[in-house]
């Protein structure tokens, strides 16, 4: 293991050898676990040999209601090495919920949790770097891909377009970061206060704040098996990402209504001119005027209702209104 890691400084209040937990969501991963779990344990061994992680660091697998023998494999590996721990969800709830379940489980067991996919597309060297940064005092460390070489053309361009779209809607996001990240216990405690149902962790992270850093790495192809993200799962995640964080689409309706109302003046002038010039069929003028006027009125009304729905939307999420980073009270 890299000696440069060992010699890195340790911030006040941070342990020299924190207990690190890898949190691994697993959905139908029977083809990769036998390869990937030993690699994860190896990475923990490396960190503890370098003196940057405690020996009781562990791996927590979250079986997200797999339909294959994923759970059996995990259970067998747990019997062989108790550092492999696991929970199993009763039903397939999707990666976001599986991650949350895992993070809330390790919150009281570990000092820092690193979420990483079961297919080990993310880099274990980057994970060690994250732990070194944790010791230096950072609370959230984002893994960011240096390039998207390992993605298909479709995924690459759609992901780019999506990040761009999110930014336009006013969402704070980290480009090319997926779910590979380290969170300190303090960050996990704050995450626990976000009780929302439609979870989009990548959107919550910047909202948590605290000290954060970025580690760049090259993402490799899947170890084995194929992607567990169907097109529908990806689409539903994208819709959640936007609707859980932005009320702007509703505001847009209001705006379109207003623009149409202004356009109405032009339309009305044109209709009346045609009417008095005798160019209009009988009944056309009144129809045109009412269609345009009612159309804009309806959009404006929808927009107003949207504003109220937006308020309800923000209230029902019951997000914490603030989270305290440090305290100096005594
Ligand atoms: N996953 C999950 N539940 C799901 C879908 C995926 O827990 O419903 C897990 C999966 O086992 C993997 C991670 O989420 O560990 C990322 O999925 P995948 O690698 O298939 O996505 P991709 O890398 O292709 O985007
Ligand atoms: Mg993957």
Give an overview in words:
The protein has 11 helices and 7 strands. With 330 residues, it is an alpha/beta fold. It has a 7-stranded mixed beta sheet with strand order 3-2-1-4-6-5-7, sandwiched between helices. Strand 1, helix 2 and strand 2 form a beta-alpha-beta unit. The model has no long low-confidence stretch (mean pLDDT 86). The site of uridine-5'-diphosphate has 16 residues, from strand 1 and helix 4. The site of uridine-5'-diphosphate (UDP) has 16 residues, from strand 1 and helix 4.
Rounded radius of gyration (Å): 26 Å
In whole angstroms, the N-to-C terminal distance is 42 Å
Given the helix and strand composition, which structural class is it?
A: alpha/beta
Secondary structure: helix percent: 40-55%
Whole-number mean pLDDT: 86
- How many separate helices? 11
Report the bound ligands by name, code or SMILES: uridine-5'-diphosphate, magnesium ion
What spatial order of strands do you see in the largest sheet?
3-2-1-4-6-5-7
Oligomer: single chain
Strand content: 5-15%
Q: What is the makeup of the main sheet?
A: 7 strands, mixed
- Count of DSSP strands: 7
Inertia-based shape? elongated
Note poorly predicted spans.
none
Task: Please write the string of helix (H) and strand (E) elements.
Answer: HEHEHEHEHEHEHHEHHH
